[in-house]
Every structure is written in C-alpha cells, then in structure tokens.
Amino acid sequence: MKGSNAKDILVNNSNKEMSEMQTKNQVEDSIIQESLLTCIDLANSDLHQSALLLKKACLDSGFFYVINHGISKEVTDKAFEQSKKFFALPSEEKMKVLKNEKHRGYTPLYDQIPDPENQVQGDHKEGYYIGSEVPRDDPQWDRPFYGLNTWPNPDVLPGWRETMEEYHQEALRVCKAIAKLLALSLDLDADYFDSPEMLGKPISTLRLLHYEGISDPSKGIYGTGAHSDYGMITLLATDGVMGLQICKDRNAKLQKWEYVPSIEGAIVVNLGDMMERWSNGLFRSTLHRVILNGQTRYSIPFFVEPNHDCIIECLPTCQSENNLPKYPAIKCSAYLTQRYEESHLKFSSYKNKLE
User: Fold this and answer.
1) What is the pLDDT of residues 296-324, one digit of tens each?
2) Where is the Fe2OG dioxygenase domain (predicted)?
3) Distances (CA, A) of 58 to 6, 37, 241, 272, 331
C-alpha cells in the first residue's frame, strides 16, 4: 500500500469561501488535487526496503504515512474522546490551565499566527500542549523544554491525564521506530539517533487541536496558517475530516497546494526544519496549512526533538568536498528557543498592527 491514486477534489460550489483561494494575491485553481504520498509499513521485517521507500518520500516532500505502527485503535479513540471532552468545557474552566512558560497547557482560539504576511486573524483553532513529564527531583527538570505538565482537574475530567500519558508514550515509541529508518536512509547505523545524547531523553510534545469555522485564503482566514515544523519528526492523527494541505515548492510564484487525505489506521508523518538542517538540505521540511470547510475538526500532532544538549550539525553522510555544510552547528535547545522567539515576535508584530 503506497497511497491512493491521485484524484481531483471538486470544491463544493455552494461553499463560496472555499471556491476561490488566493496565495500572494494570485488566484489558485479551485480544483485541488490529493497528494500522492508513500505509505511505510512499520511491521515490514525488511528495514532496508522500508528505508528506501522512506528516503524517496523525504526527498520529495518529507510527508508520508505509516501503518502497522502499533498504536491501537482503542488508545487513539480514547485520546480523541478525552480531547473532545476538554474542548467542550466552559471557557473559564479551560483558562485555568492556560499555557505556561514551559509551553504546557491550553492555547485559546487565535493564539497563534504562523503566517502573518497572509493571515488577517490568528489560527482558527484551540489547543493543549503536553510535554515529557520530568519531576522536580530530576537534575534537568528546570531546562526550558522539560518540566511538569499542567493537567485539568481530575474531578472534572477523570482519567484524562492517564489517557494522554499513554498516548504520549506510544507516539514516542513510533517516532523512535521511524528514526531508525531515517538513519538507514541516510547511510547511518540504525541506532544512530537512539543514542543517549539524541533521543535518549528527547523533547517530545503531544498537542491536542480543535478547529472550528470556514477558511477563506483570499481573505487571510485559515484553520492554521502556512508553516513548517521546527523539529525532527511530527506524527499526526486525525479524525478523518479533510483539511491538511501541503505545498512542495514554497518558493513558487503561484504556490500549488495539495490535500493530504486521511487513511484509516494510518498516521501522517512529516519531517521538520531540524531534520532538513541535519541532512544538509537533502531531506525536505515542507510548508503545510489547514483549510476548514465548516466541519468541526480534531487532530493530535506529536512532535519529537533530541535532548537539550544535542548538537544539530551536518550529518557525516550528508557532506563532502563538493557538498559542504550549509548550516552552522547549533545546540538543540538554542535552536528551539530561537524559533519560539521568532514566532513570538511575529505574533507581537501582528498584534501591534491591529492596534
């Protein structure tokens, strides 16, 4: 199974907000194709075959599916069920667990604007961040991306924390399995990324998302504005509602966007900017966004990066005398802090314009 055949999705004529899309003041075709993505079977015993398929996907867009990943339907369904329960709470209850300085907790509607040049409003989504739980007696608990999570009141949402911790653990296991294939696809030892200084104590974040509304790119209104992810690997579980789009050529004068359809039992995976940097630009971190059609949409992305002190520098197999490193070496924590600060500045600039 390597994905369905490409086919055109005719945009509903009654949905005027979706019938005309505009990117950088140019109207896109109102017929948007589904993207043809590679599907990787994590149960395949031939790791080198899977690594070759993965490499093809990472050279093309950095987006692909994984199946037979081992996260049961029961675990996934429970996570979505509990996510919906949280977002259905009254606003005052959700605001009790507002995101803190450790990037843990609730983020309200319009809280982010990843593409301020093309967005006139913040993203039409609310979210909830859950990171790796690091207790106070851990010597590294005060590092920027470690620490304690913020949890809803267990009397209000019994079993919520346990459900999310179980999903977090399962998602991290899948990311480590994908990292082995990534290593092999880059001519490295399979356990290259699983070393103590890399994914031994990773920075990993589960995020619950709830979307509402109708997008209109011609008016700068998006479920999520166009962006690429900061880190190494992102997993994405969805409720089946269409919305995710990718653009394989971000520098094109007229950007071509393609829908990424959901496949029952499969998880969407994409590489982030850190992986592109590690591979010296060989592997792709692709621009993506969410376009809403009026249906309520839930998704659960999971982001993984190496530990704080890991040095992100060109991998030995991705450089040569004729292909020198394109990016300077940087510590993982410094890189992520820099990207978060850039994002905060964009949002502050956007708010100042409104005022």
Assistant:
1) 999 999 999 999 999 999 999 999 999 99
2) 202-306
3) 19, 10, 25, 11, 23
